[in-house]
Design brief:
This protein is α+β, with helices and mostly antiparallel strands. The chain has helices at residues 86-92, 117-136, 159-169, 190-202, 204-214, 217-227, 231-238, 250-259, 285-299, 339-349, 391-402, 416-423, 447-455, and strands spanning 2-8, 15-19, 27-28, 30-32, 35-42, 45-53, 56-58, 65-67, 73-79, 100-103, 106-109, 153-154, 173-178, 183-189, 244-245, 264-268, 279-284, 317-318, 333-334, 353-357, 363-368, 409-410, 430-434, 441-446. Strand 10 and strand 11 form a beta hairpin.
């Protein structure tokens, strides 16, 4: 149990308190100095509460608020054990001194001070709890269009033809159909194209055209283990196809994508529905993030954490120059670097892109794993050697095929809400954090980083 103190410091003649943990029954508050107070011994959890001041229901607008299904507003608090010391929990809620001005019964308060680290942590925990509730009560039907088309490739197709189709259709990944099993058994991705090119570069004059003309996608998938052996790869390839069911909630879907470090996951019909194609669609983090943002638009005023700058929030991968620590090293590449080294970074780190910088570390462009598909146009890969191709040359090929593009960026002073809204835009998978004047790369925030932060 944790002692939790609740206070109303904004004046009045009498005040009562009620909360979800009191069954919404009124409890009298005592006047201590200039504020009304009450203390409860509570188990850890998330609770809602309100104040009744001089017969009028009030909420403290400097604390997190939540709207219920009827539109009523309540404050919300996360109660946690703090180093097993109940007194610390009480101290954490002590109010900062505020000035009160009374004018004909209208209560005026000054702007609250910047949140302390402890309060920021509580805000994040409450915010994450609310996002989890949104996702737990939503299904894939909330993010997947009612009517849409999805490309599927037969696993018997030759590798060359499959990658040409992917390039022509602008696809970075596509489900594979196994006619014998009558179901989707795998995914063909841009990573597969990279791995095939790396293998062919070792003996492209002898096997290049034959491998791509004769080998089917299924044969390539089966032979992948012997080409790229190793316990980790073997374990990854022997597992069943990662997928979700249409009955799964969005939190389960998002966690499946994050935990398996994939960009999209196939959605299968529930086991009770055995008619027709089992695949409904693909679910991706940007789609889920867009759904979350649409909900946050209704409640953003109740979550101050959304207005915090991302430079103060544990999200993304950051350069050591910023003084922040990250679980993953921030990698960048130069235009003169060999393309193969850039691709190796992407595969080893299991990330989808790498910022390209100049000698001063300023952002020039971003090379994404899906950009490798530009080499499939007119069989360019058969006429080059990856060891000899620079990042600059690869980007030029990309521009020739798909045209130049803008880099999606943000600043360390951008708010969390601004970043989430940018990442929810279709086609925006990541934001490079740059300094405003020099464009020096400070960090990178992907849609996966954002969803990991939201889910905790």
């Amino acid at each position: 149990m944790v002692l939790r103190r609740f206070a109303w410091p904004y004046g009045g003649q009498r005040a009562s308190f009620c909360g979800s943990f009191t069954g919404w029954r009124e409890c009298p508050m005592g006047l201590v100095g200039t504020e009304f107070q009450v203390v409860f011994d509570l188990p850890p959890g998330v609770y809602q509460y309100r104040f009744l001041v001089d017969g009028v229901w009030r909420c403290d607008d400097t604390k997190p608020v939540v709207h219920d299904e009827y539109g009523l507003i309540s404050n919300e608090v996360l109660v946690t054990l703090v180093e097993n010391n109940t007194h610390l929990a009480v101290q954490q809620e002590l109010s900062s001194p505020r000035r009160m001005n009374m004018d004909e019964g209208i209560i005026l308060t000054t702007m609250p001070p910047e949140p302390s680290p402890q309060n920021s942590g509580v805000q994040i925990a409450i915010f994450r709890h609310r996002v989890s509730e949104i996702l737990l009560h939503s299904t894939i039907y909330d993010v997947v269009p009612v009517s849409s088309k999805i490309a599927i490739l037969d696993g018997r197709l030759p590798v060359k033809q499959a990658f040409n189709i992917m390039h022509d259709e602008g696809l970075a990944l596509v489900p594979l159909w196994d006619d014998g099993q009558g179901t989707i058994t795998g995914m063909l991705t841009a990573s597969d194209f990279v791995l095939i090119l790396r293998k062919l570069q070792r003996n492209i004059r002898v096997l290049g055209h034959e491998e791509l003309e004769m080998h089917s996608v299924s044969a390539w998938k089966e032979a992948k283990l012997q080409y790229y052996g190793g316990a980790d790869v073997a374990a990854m390839q022997r597992r069943p196809l990662v997928h979700v069911k249409d009955s799964d909630n969005l939190r389960e879907v998002a966690l499946t994508i994050i935990q398996n470090e994939i960009s999209s996951v196939p959605i299968f019909k529930s086991s009770t529905d055995t008619s027709g194609m089992p695949l409904l669609n693909l679910a991706s983090l940007p789609g889920i993030l867009k759904f979350v943002c649409s909900k946050l638009q209704e409640w953003h005023e109740g979550f101050p954490i959304l207005q915090n700058q991302i430079g103060s929030i544990p999200i993304g991968t950051w350069s050591p120059h910023t003084g922040r620590t990250s679980n993953r090293q921030l990698r960048t590449s130069r235009l003169s670097a060999p393309l193969i080294s850039c691709l190796d970074f992407l595969l080893e780190d299991r990330v989808s892109s790498i910022p390209i910088v100049d000698d001063n570390g300023s952002l020039l462009d971003v090379y994404s794993l899906s950009d490798i598909m530009a080499l499939a146009k007119n069989d360019v890969y058969t006429r080059i050697e990856l060891e000899q191709v620079t990042v600059e040359h690869a980007l030029e090929l990309q521009y020739q095929v798909n045209g130049r593009r803008d880099c999606h960026t943000c600043l360390s002073t951008s708010t969390l809400l601004e970043v989430l809204e940018q990442l929810s835009v279709p086609g925006v998978r990541r934001l490079v954090v740059i300094e405003p004047m020099t464009r020096f790369v400070q960090g990178i925030i992907s849609s996966r980083d954002a969803m990991k932060f939201l889910l905790g």
